[in-house]
Each structure stands twice: as structure tokens, then as C-alpha cells.
Model the fold of this input.
Amino acid sequence: MTGWLPPEAWSAVALSLKVSLWATLCSLPLGVFTAYALARWRFPGRGLVNGLVHLPLILPPVVTGYILLLSMGPQGPLGGPLAQIGVVFAFRWTGAALAAGIMAFPLMVRAIRLSIEAVDPKLEQAAATLGAPRLWVFASVTLPMILPGVIAGAILAFAKAMGEFGATITFVSNIPGQTQTLPSAIYAFLQVPGGEAAAVKLVLVSVAVAMGALLLSEVIGRRVARRVAGI
Amino acid sequence: MTGWLPPEAWSAVALSLKVSLWATLCSLPLGVFTAYALARWRFPGRGLVNGLVHLPLILPPVVTGYILLLSMGPQGPLGGPLAQIGVVFAFRWTGAALAAGIMAFPLMVRAIRLSIEAVDPKLEQAAATLGAPRLWVFASVTLPMILPGVIAGAILAFAKAMGEFGATITFVSNIPGQTQTLPSAIYAFLQVPGGEAAAVKLVLVSVAVAMGALLLSEVIGRRVARRVAGI
Amino acid sequence: GEGRLTVFAAASMKNAMDEIAAGYEAETGNVVDVSLAGSSALARQIQQGAPADIFISANTDWMDRLEAEGLINADSRFDLLGNAIVLVAAKGAAPVDIGPDMDLAARLNGGRLAMALVEAVPAGIYGKASLEALGQWDSVAPMVAQADNVRAALALVAVGAAPMGIVYASDAVAEPRVDVVGTFPADSHPPIVYPAAKLSSSDNPLDAGFLAYLRGAEARAAFERQGFAVLAQE
Amino acid sequence: MTVSVRLQHSFGGFGLDVAFEAPAGITVLFGRSGSGKTTIINAVAGLLTPDAGRIAIDGWVMLDTEARVALPVHRRRLGYIFQDARLFPHLSVRQNLLFGQFFAPKSAPRADMGRVVEMLGIGPLLARRPAMLSGGERQRVAIGRALLAAPRLILADEPLAALDEARKAEILPYFERLRDEVSVPILYVSHAPAEVARLATTVVALEGGRVTGQGPAMQILGDPNLMPTGVRDAGALLQAVVVRHHDDGLSELSAGGVPLFVPRVPHPTGASLRLRIAASEVILSRARPEGLSALNILPGVVEAIREGEGPGAMVSLDTPAGRVLARLTRRSVTAMDLRVGVACHAIVKTVAIAPENVS
Amino acid sequence: MTVSVRLQHSFGGFGLDVAFEAPAGITVLFGRSGSGKTTIINAVAGLLTPDAGRIAIDGWVMLDTEARVALPVHRRRLGYIFQDARLFPHLSVRQNLLFGQFFAPKSAPRADMGRVVEMLGIGPLLARRPAMLSGGERQRVAIGRALLAAPRLILADEPLAALDEARKAEILPYFERLRDEVSVPILYVSHAPAEVARLATTVVALEGGRVTGQGPAMQILGDPNLMPTGVRDAGALLQAVVVRHHDDGLSELSAGGVPLFVPRVPHPTGASLRLRIAASEVILSRARPEGLSALNILPGVVEAIREGEGPGAMVSLDTPAGRVLARLTRRSVTAMDLRVGVACHAIVKTVAIAPENVS
Ligand SMILES: Nc1ncnc2c1ncn2[C@@H]1O[C@H](COP(=O)(O)OP(=O)(O)OP(=O)(O)O)[C@@H](O)[C@H]1O
Ligand SMILES: Nc1ncnc2c1ncn2[C@@H]1O[C@H](COP(=O)(O)OP(=O)(O)OP(=O)(O)O)[C@@H](O)[C@H]1O
Ligand code: MOO
Ligand SMILES: [Mg+2]
Ligand SMILES: [Mg+2]
Done:
């Protein structure tokens, strides 16, 4: 098995899994919050927030990567201060996770937002009349009901994160073992003569992982939906 | 105004609009069909189709571009025969549209599928009892009801198409006036020292167009939804 | 030792750098991490404070820019590699006599000439310069398909999408589906130079050793196997 | 036209096995919840394929599982009126009404849009969207939509169940008109006895997936043994003729020669109509009662007495107007010494004959 | 505990301006569709902020627009029982029941889970999900959930409207128990007269956003002028005591000394209960009628006669049992020569006093 791909490739696979997993998990709470705000609140600047969320979908990924590099790099207006308090993204796997998370964010928010819009506000009102404060209503009523949507959104984001390349390589470079994700490795193999075979293998691994995640999301989503509906 | 950006840049803007528009319009029928099939039919291979549809979301765009090049290029197993009947994608803006359409397809299908799943099959049954054959039921009942979702899906796809770079340049290269889209132009400017200023301007144009489309989709979507609900 | 070193190198050097890194690691016990990406992406990352120790660029422009900004140690800079640009065509194609007399546009016969971006990517810039010098550019320009990098241009020829392309000699060397049908005269374009240098921000004690190793015999052999001309003297 | 239906189907715990004929007019499928009414209607509509069965209108076979015939839904030429109207929300009332016309064969006897609109009183609504209609209006449009599809059979599955009493009262007359003016057979599902009494030409009584009785409405509804919803809802149907309209707001009817007074009915003198007299609203008296506020007194002879489990008893009285049912306490039966063959009087309050029961 | 409510609010075309007091027991907000019942309940719940008003329980102010006090919904300590139950589908019955307990202040008099479960008969359902419950069971759980939130006020907006008759009959006794066993005031919205008659301690009659009458149930329901849904639904309430249970399935009651027979009630001898006698079901007779199947005859004196627009008239009779209303035709009034002060008898069929009207 290990002979099938060079060891660095395996380490890229492992790193991509780690990066995508963290990207998904860490952006999930913010994704749920953003989706909730967009679905339920009317506030000035709502259109702007919606636009910002979609920006990574719209911009060429390389541009998103440059924006990240400029703002979150060691000399960036955000990266500098953050580094002072020990939070470093630039040229770390954490940065790869940040880039992947941002690129996947619009997909996650869309999926979750739709499921929130499908929740009957009457149930939330019922919870409030029973004395539950707003946050508790969210945690005990809204969240369980949107779980299928959250899972679908998370897994879609995970799949997207597994494939993210342009923003990642632009922001955190392509350092083996640290920031070389599966797509970066595929890119590197494609840049030199004779690299295609290895690239194809990596593509297959990548497709297998992402497809597995998608299938999982359909199955889990359906099961959780049934559990939530109490059937 | 024209002085603000070099004329080639404006032609890239125009081309990107054309490519994205055609990509969206041409993939729309197939997107609706695929979404309908995934939402309503249970058939063997449904999981596979769902996976295939999502593939461009998951793969690094360059890989999608290579796959297109291999299959739809002049010597490709599909491109060759198609060329015989006069359908050529390679190095044409049509190819750019194809690449953009494929990359945007999963987003479009996801949005439409959700809106189809929200249509009450009972209305479709009612139409059937009145004598409407299946296709007519779709055209006269289902389609009007999902119009908001279709519009949302189409505009999301358009925005995504505006930003598509990797697959497009890999498949159809960058021929000014023919296949040089906005993201290709941005990429080119970013490759040379000092190109940032022009790149930033193009990014702004691209963001403005995509944001406009998104805002439009929210507005139209809401209006059409109200019209369909008959309120 | 068990030191660690980070090298930012142009992506087109991957095969050679893999070999060299392995050789260096075997010899010294130190680990080399090679980050491969487009020269422009790497240069920008360096501008933004990337924690690299050594940069090898595929062109002099970005290295010049970094030097001007004081980001590289000018004393350590040297021209590591040279390359040639060649005309490639599908396997078995007849050779072309590259010169002012060739009618490249006619040879294309309506097909495309695959190149890297002619205004942005070094191989494309060199190719365009050569074609201009040979008086071919104006007739060929409308047929040029510009890829985002050399490898993509080569792929266009390899899969038959374009009948001919202009790429580095180093790229053409191992692509079985294409033949080199001509080499552009070195004087028809600015010198193709891959400069290497140590970053000013790096205080890695291994820098000097690795730069020396790049000039060494093993490195030279590896580069030459990949079709590069080695400019650096030991 | 007669629809003949024979069906067998089983769901997990439920088995359906029915056969009945629905002649022209309204055939009500009557039975309590879960007795299989919707299952039958859906099978007729083609929305459900039964395990076995045959459905035909005059010779035209829509389903024959043995002959492997099963027309798809859209070929069955139905007008299905749903409980919840199911109008198309994105179409105007006019477009909803016209929806089925495209698909009706050119040769089909085409219902006239103008007449249907007139009959249902929906002229002023044509340009509106369904969301702008009241529940009652919506249901009327649904009736019109079904009619205009030129159906060979109309299906209605509890079309009034979702409406409140006022709305029901608004719609019922339209179904009566349908029954009386349109020749298409109507299969109508209901479990409201008053509705059945008012509308049914034929009743098919269902219980647990079996037909427990079928026949003309008068016969089935007057038979307390067949009434599946229990004696509390039993009642008799009487046929009456309008004799005169009085100035004090009452109409005088004659049922087999017995004068009956009801609040003014819209029918002209001489018109024939049906009255329902709920068994629970009849008081019996051995002597002819005098000086009572109740205006309607039917003399008769006790035909049968059935005692139930509770304190009640059901007395059938043979009167010149027809059979009348009275639900009494057993204590009263004893106190009045009621026996088969005894003469007595049925007292019915004028206003107890509520408008819904006059048809 | 008394809830005092004063509210002013206007929607586009509709203006609400009400003030009423709801003492312990069930205060029914009674009025036709669109009269503002739900608007009031929502304002009390805090789901709607009215233009002006004050809502307080004993001195505890939940809303005072002048003092700019408006407790958020979750601080109002309510038990809101919705028309559609609104159970949390993802939680078991037990978890639904316990939902409100977390938020009740420790000091609040805590309803005992065991007792509530016992009272509502939902013990066997605790582990199920709401999707697995029948409509009636679901509504019972909703009642329990509201009770267990230790509310200071229970709100119920047509909690039975979505249920069919059988389910209604199943739930009504639980509301009676609530009224009789729990000291928390209950605001109950309804437009079903039978429900009002059975449950109400106090009635607030609404019409077009105004209070047209408020007071003890007996008083309001016996007043045909105040009954907003029209005379057809009018009826009198009588207070009665259980005298004896007879072997033939009847219970003998005494209303002011007049014996009345109803189908066996579950109450013990000596228990006090309420009867509703619908005006449309009463027959009057000048002479004491003999030999009738109807067992219940109340002697009385005509107190008032009101003639409506139609053929009907409403006669109030003063009987030892209390005021009884009878709806007759004007023809009968003339024929019987009924005038104020005339003695006559009200005849009510035993079985016409349906169980829903016995409380
Ligand atoms: N798809 C199904 N799967 C399993 N059982 C079903 C299904 N549809 C109906 N049933 C069962 O078949 C029986 C008859 O159902 P049906 O809907 O025909 O009753 P109905 O007479 O229309 O009742 P209602 O008056 O409540 O509408 C019921 O016991 C029901 O639970
Ligand atoms: N959000 C709103 N905007 C405008 N008008 C409203 C709104 N909510 C209620 N109304 C109007 O206020 C009036 C009172 O409504 P409300 O829901 O309180 O009536 P109700 O007595 O509960 O009626 P029902 O018995 O039908 O439930 C109605 O005329 C209604 O149309
Ligand atoms: O080093 Mo590159 O890959 O030609 O930019
Ligand atoms: Mg049914
Ligand atoms: Mg209401």
C-alpha cells in the first residue's frame, strides 16, 4: 500500500484530511451562526454580510489566497497582531485550514441556512413560552431540528476543503509535511515530466475520500432527519 | 472609464460575462433535470450520479481542466467526434463556457434540488388527475413552483462561473479576445512584479458583477416566491 | 547534524530538487523541505515574510525585485541554472529549422501554438521575445494559446490539442508524446537564468552548505538529467 | 353511466376487499376513520395500484389486474376534488379552471366554462390567485376545475372536512347542483351523517375494509344496523313536496300527506326535496299532543324497537311520510309501554329540521 | 390570582381595545372568527407587543406600555397550550414534559410530574416521540408540558379546534380537571358554545375587537343579547346536583328541585354539575304534557320573548332550575298565545342533553 504512492504523497493525504477536518469543525459554529443570522435576522448590512460570505465562491481562488497572504501573513494587518498573541496561520497547516475553511464557508452557510429557513418558528416560540431564553431555545430546539442540514453542510464543506488548491498554495505555500495538501501535491506532480501517474493516483485518493464523505452525508442526513422527525 | 483599465481588460470583462451567461443558460435545463432526478427518482446509480455532479466541487480545478482537455480536446474521445459534427470547444469561448458550466454545475443542482424537494407532490398528483401527462405536469406545475430556487441556482452558478479560472485556462488556454476571461487576466497580472494595481481593478470589477448578481438573485428570488405563492 | 532547511523553488524544478534534497539529506543528515510553486507566488510569499531560507526563481525579474527590497542576501545570489526554449510537436514531426526564414504560422496550418502566458510567465516571455527577434511574432500571435504555466502548454501539445508549442528544453526532455523539433537560438531571447539566493531573514546555519551543494557535482548531474544547463561553477 | 369497482388490497395491518356499483348521481362512501375510503378513492384515481381488482365505467376499463390493464392517472379522465382544494397557487382562478381542458379529448362532452362559473358563483374571482380566496371559495373553484376537465367520473375525498360549519353550508348546495344537473357519476367520501343524508343518491357503507351495506340512500340511512358510526347519528330520510311559502318565514311541506313546517326553503312550490330527521331529535307521544310549540307531528305505528347497550333504545315508526327513527331511553319505552304495532306520534321541532338537512 | 388585561392595538383594518379581568378558573375568550381572540392571547404571551396596554397577574406586571415594562416571552412564566400542540418532535414525551422545568424558578410551586402524568393518563406514552401519538394524546401531552412549566398563567388558543369530535370528548375532561384542581388562572380561546358552556368559569365575549360582555359563565351564556355567534347557538346553563344513579343507565339530577334524567354521569351522588340546554332543543307546552317519551319537563313562567329577523323567536322561561331559553317559530308563539307572565313547560329530551353539555 505504502509503495503505491511515495511517502510524501501519503503525508499530503494525511495533512489534507487533518486540514479539511479542522477547517470544517472550526468553521462550523461560525457557519451555523452566520446562517442563522442571515435566515432569521433583519439587520442593516445583511446584504453585505451575505455578499462577503459568498466572496470566496466568486473570486478566483488565487485572489482569495493573496488577500489572505496580505492580511493574515506575518506582516499583514491581522497576521501581525495575531502572531503577537501566538496565533500564526502563515505557512502553517493552520493557515491551510483557514484557507480551506474560508473557501468552503459559502457552501456550508448555504446548506445550513436553507435548513434553518425550513424550521417552523412556532416551535421556537413554544419553547420561549415555556421559559427558555433565546440561546437555550436555539440549542435545544433549533439546533437539533437543523442537524441534518448542518451535517450536509459540514460534509460538503469537508469535500470542498479536500479539493481546495489555489487559495491554499498562494497563502501558505507548498511545504511538504507542513502545508503540502493533496491538491498541492497533485499540482507539483503535474509541473514536471513524468509526474502524471502519481498525480492520477492522488486524484483517485482525493475523489475516494470526498465521495465517501458525500455518501456518508446523504446516509447520515437521512437517518438524522428521521430521528429528528421522531419516526 | 475605458482609460481606467486597458482595453484588453475590458474585452476580458465582456468575454467573462458572455461565457458565464452562456454557461449558466445552457447548463440550466440539464441542471433542472438532474436536480429533479436526484430529488424525485429512485434509480440504481443515483449515488453515482450525485457523486459525479459533485466531482468538480471536490477536485482541484486544474484536474477538472485536464480531464476536459483529455476528453473534449480535438483528439479526445468526445472532442474528436463532436468536431466532426461542427461542435468545437477547444480554444473557443464555448470551451470556456463549458468549463465554467461544469464547475458551477454542482452549486446549481444543489440549489434547485432543495427547491424541488420542497414542492408538495400532491399538487403534481392533482395535475395528473386532471389529465396532464408527466412532462406537462412538470412544465406547468413543478417548474413554476421551483422558479425561485432555479433563479437562485442560476445566479449562484453565474457568480461561480465569473470566478472560474483553473479549469478554464487548463482546458482552453488564454487567448485574448477569445478565451481570456477575467480570472485569467487577473492571474496574468499577478504573475509579474508590479501587476497588482491592474489585478486589483479587475478583481473589483469581478466582485461588483458577482455581488450584483447575488443581490439580484435575493431580490428576484423573493419577488418570484411571492408571485408563485400568489400573495 | 539534524538541521532543517526550507527551500522555495520554482515548480518546474521538482524532479531535480527531489533528487538533490534526497542526496543532501543522505550526505548531511539534515532535512530539506522544498516548497514548489510558481515563482511569482513564492516571491510574494517571501515579500510577506515567508519562513524560507533559500529561494530559487525561474526568472530574474522576481529575484531582482526581492533583491531591490533587501529581502535576499545579494552576496549569496548566483545564477544556478540556464535553460533553452524549444519548439515541440507531436511525436514524429519533422524538425524545423528555427530562424527568420521559417514560416511558423504556415507550419501551424491553422492549429494553435501552445505557450505559457506571453506577458506573465517566464517561458512565455522568452518565447515571445524569440519569435519577435525572428520576425515571426506578428504572424503567429493570433494562433498562440497561452497556458498558465509551461507544463500546461506542454500538455496541450502532448494531448494533441495544439500541433506545436514552445517550452523549456527541461520540460520536453521526459515527455514521450512529443518531440523537440527545434531549439531557439540563445541570442534570440534574454538569457534564461534560474538565480538562487539566501533570504536576508534566514539565519539558518545550513544555508551556505546547501547553496554549495547546489553547485556540487551531484546536483549538477541531477539538473542535467532533467535537461537544465548548469551555469553555476563549483 | 355506472362505475363498477372491485378491489382487493392489503397494507400491513389492513385488508381492503370491496365491490360496489356507483350509478349516476352521488355515491357516498361512508364509514368511520380507517375504514378504507381514501384507499378506494386513490385506487380509482390511479394514485395507488391495488393488489387485485377491476374498475370500469360502463364498459371502459381503467384497471383490470387480471388483464394487466392499468391506465395511468392522467388517462383516467377524472375530476378529483381534494379535501384541501389543492389549487395551483401560481395560477389564477381562471387558469386553474382551464387546466384540465387541454387534456380532455376533443370529442368529450365539454362542460361550458360560463355555465360552471355561473353555477358555482365564482365569476368575480376569475382573476384572483388562490391565496386570495376564502376556504369556501377555494373549494368551489376546485369543484369547477374538476368539472371542466370533462371527467367521466368525479371523485371527492371529504371535500368539506377542512371547512368550518359556515363554509360547509356554503358549499353543500353546489354539490347538490352537481348531483342534479350533471350526469357524471360522483364518488364522494364522507363520515358526516348530515352530509351523507343531504347528498347521497347511493350509499356504500364501509367498515374495516368491507362493504357492510350498499343501496339507495333512503334505505341505508334508515337502517340503524347499517349505520357504521353508531346509533347516535342515525336518522331517517323523508321525501317531501313544497306546498306553500307562508308569510311568517316558514315553508309548508307535505310528506306523504303529513304537513311539515320548515324555515323558508328556496325551492318553488311543487318541488320535491329530502328531509333528514335525526333519531335523537324525535320525541314520541302515545296521545296526539296538543298545545306544543313543536309544529311537526307525524302519526305512525311502531315497527320495531332495538335496545342498545346503554340506556337508549331505537324505535322505528311507520308513518305516512315514511319510516321515522326515534332514539329514546329504555325508561321511556317502558313508561310509555311501547311495543311493535302500537300507534303513536313523532314530535319534531320545526327548527330542529335544520337547513342542512333539507335538500 | 387574578389576571388583569388592558390592551389597545391596531392592525391595518382592525382595532383592538379591550379590558377585562380573569379570575382563577377558566376565563373563556369567546367570539367569532376575527374578533381578536388570538391577538389578545399573543399579547399576553409576549409574542406580540401591543400599541398600548397593561397586563398583570395580581401585582406582578408583565407589560405596561406607559411604564415601558415588557417582559420578554421567556420571563412571563406561561403555559401556552397551542391549537396544534407544537410538541418538540425530536424529544420524547418525557423530555417534552420536562422542558419547562429547567426554567421555572426554584421557589415556584412545582407541579408534580407524577401527578400530572397520572391526571392526564399519559404514563404509557412517556418514552414515545410525538410523531407516534394520536391527536388527542398529543394535546394531552401539550397540556402536561404547559402545567409542568410551573406557570402563573395558562393560555390556550382553541386547543381543541384541530381535533375531531371523538378527540375533543377525550380532552375536555382534562381541562375540567385543570379548572377544578389547579389554582392557576386559565385564559381559554374558543368559539364553540358547547365548549364554552362546559368549561368557562368566566366568559369574556368579544366582537370586532371590543368586549361586549364579561362575567360569570351562567350569566353571559344565558343572555341571548350577548351571544356573539347568534341565537342559533344560544342555550341556558343550569346548575344541578346528582341525586341517584339508576339501573337503567340513567342518572337522576336535581336542578332547583326539578328532577332531570341524563345518561349515566361519572360523578358521585351529591356532586354538583352544570347542564347546558340548547335553546333550539327545547319544546314548550302550555299544559303539562303527558305520555311523552321526553323525561325532562321544567315548569316555568315566560320571562321575555324576543323576535328575530327570521321566522324564529327566543323565549326566556323562568323555572325553579334557573333560566331556560327556548327557540320557537313565531307561528308557535302566536298559536300558543305565549306572553310574558304566562306559565308553561319546557320539554327537553333526555338524550338531547348530550354528554358534552353535562359537566
Ligand atoms: N400507505 C399505507 N401504508 C400502510 N397502511 C396504510 C397506508 N394507507 C392507509 N393505510 C391504512 O389503511 C387503512 C385505511 O386507510 P384509509 O386512508 O383508506 O382510511 P379512510 O377510510 O380514508 O380514513 P379517514 O376517514 O381517516 O380518512 C387505515 O388503517 C390506514 O392506517
Ligand atoms: N399580523 C397581522 N396583520 C394584520 N392584521 C392582522 C394580523 N393579525 C391579525 N390581524 C387581523 O386582526 C383581526 C383579529 O385577528 P385574530 O387572529 O386576533 O382573530 P381571532 O379572534 O383569533 O380569530 P379566529 O377565531 O379566526 O382565530 C383579524 O381581522 C385579522 O385579520
Ligand atoms: O517557475 Mo514557473 O513554474 O515557470 O513560474
Ligand atoms: Mg381518508
Ligand atoms: Mg385565532
Remarks:
- The mean pLDDT of chain A is 87.
